[in-house]
Amino acid sequence: MSTSSIHDLWEAASASPYEPTVSRDSQFYVGFTLLLIAFVLTSLFGLNQSLINVPALGVPASLAFGFGAVYMICAVGVYV
């Protein structure tokens, strides 16, 4: 790649800035909702432990906690 093509790529990218799926203003609410859902699903999983509940409650709870924790970290200003 020559430097002129890198410069052209840089100029083309500046015309269309990145827009996140979840805006910065709503990251707190999305993170809080996901953490609340994770808490409820984890509680239900803890009350009724069976092999059926692992994919039905355990996996969604862990995904909601993981994404909710990242959104909350970003919402308070600690970028990972």
Automatic annotation (TrEMBL):
An annotated GO BP: protein N-linked glycosylation
Top-level taxonomic group: Eukaryota
Subunit annotation: Component of the oligosaccharyltransferase (OST) complex.
This protein's UniProt keywords: Membrane, Transmembrane, Transmembrane helix
Main location: membrane
Subcellular location(s) of the protein: Membrane
Family per record: Belongs to the OST5 family.
Membrane topology recorded in Swiss-Prot or TrEMBL: Multi-pass membrane protein
Function: Subunit of the oligosaccharyl transferase (OST) complex that catalyzes the initial transfer of a defined glycan (Glc(3)Man(9)GlcNAc(2) in eukaryotes) from the lipid carrier dolichol-pyrophosphate to an asparagine residue within an Asn-X-Ser/Thr consensus motif in nascent polypeptide chains, the first step in protein N-glycosylation. N-glycosylation occurs cotranslationally and the complex associates with the Sec61 complex at the channel-forming translocon complex that mediates protein translocation across the endoplasmic reticulum (ER). All subunits are required for a maximal enzyme activity.
Endpoints of the signal sequence: none
Segments passing through the bilayer: 28-47, 59-79
Protein's UniProt name: Dolichyl-diphosphooligosaccharide-protein glycosyltransferase subunit OST5
Cellular component GO terms held in the UniProt record: oligosaccharyltransferase complex
